[in-house]
Amino acid sequence: MKVGFVGLGLLGSAMVKRLSSQGIKVNLWNRSIEKAKTLGLPYVETLEELFKNEKIIFLCIKDSQAVEEVLKKGSSFLKNRIIIDTSTNQFSKVLEFHQFVKDWGGFYLECPVLGSIIPAEKGQLTILVSGEKEPFEKVKPLLEILAQKLIYFQTPGKATQAKLINNFLLALFMEALASALVLGEKIGFSKEELLEVLENGAGNSYVLKVKKEALLRENFTPHFSLENLIKDLNYASELYQKFSGISLEGALVKEIYKLGVKMGLKDKDFSAIYQVLKNFQFY
Q: Considering the entire predicted model, what is its pTM?
């Protein structure tokens, strides 16, 4: 099977490597062609060329504005194309994308992922899918290369809503763990002591499992950047305002993550919220 792929950031590159390692022929396009060249796979110089040549096209792009730009540039070649959009989008925008691609004769699947670089490279992501059943079944073998679990919602928008709810909780949980760790250290616990308590008590979680070493070593090499998490929190705020009013918890935790940007940590992993809480004076 042959696919096109747009977006070679950390997650996109990891997914490309996984697909290629499993025998999928991947044709690349990226805003920076240099990134495409480094992967040693076929690439095209223009986005239009990719849309013209490939029937199935993955997107893994930073935000909804970028997704919209890509779809518009490739619109003349959308007929009979299946777009697999793994980006995390605004829930209102993603509904527009479904309609836009349909109007041009193509099929749009919103497929936001749960997990980051290492699960992507190992084919252990969870992928949430919304869109028409027939194109989903057609590309399901591709998605199963990337994911250990697929969760399908036929209704457009539901996959994106579920992803935003998940990342809202992710942000709260990471901030709570970091807060507990900073408090324990100020009292006099070592990080090792406190993390042992938390992983055997109320802190026991997937988040602690995957971020334990980053917290211990204070190595915040990005797997999911603080800046990208703030973007998702902004999208989640829109979701809350439409369906549930303002989330006080979300508003407060977003401000704490934004302090990380002011401290120069925007490109660090979101677990660097620990450094924000440890080093910033809140009085």
A: 0.94
Q: What is the pLDDT of residue 127?
A: 98
Is residue 163 part of the annotated active site? The answer reads: yes
d(CA 141, CA 43): 23
What domains lie within the chain, and their CATH numbers? 2-154 (3.40.50.720), 161-279 (1.10.1040.10)
Q: What is the mean pLDDT of each run of 10 residues along the chain (283 residues)?
A: 96 98 97 91 96 98 97 97 98 97 98 96 98 98 98 96 97 96 96 96 94 96 96 94 84 94 96 94 55
From 158, 163, 211, 212, the catalytic residue: 163
pLDDT for 272 equals: 97
pLDDT of 231 = 96
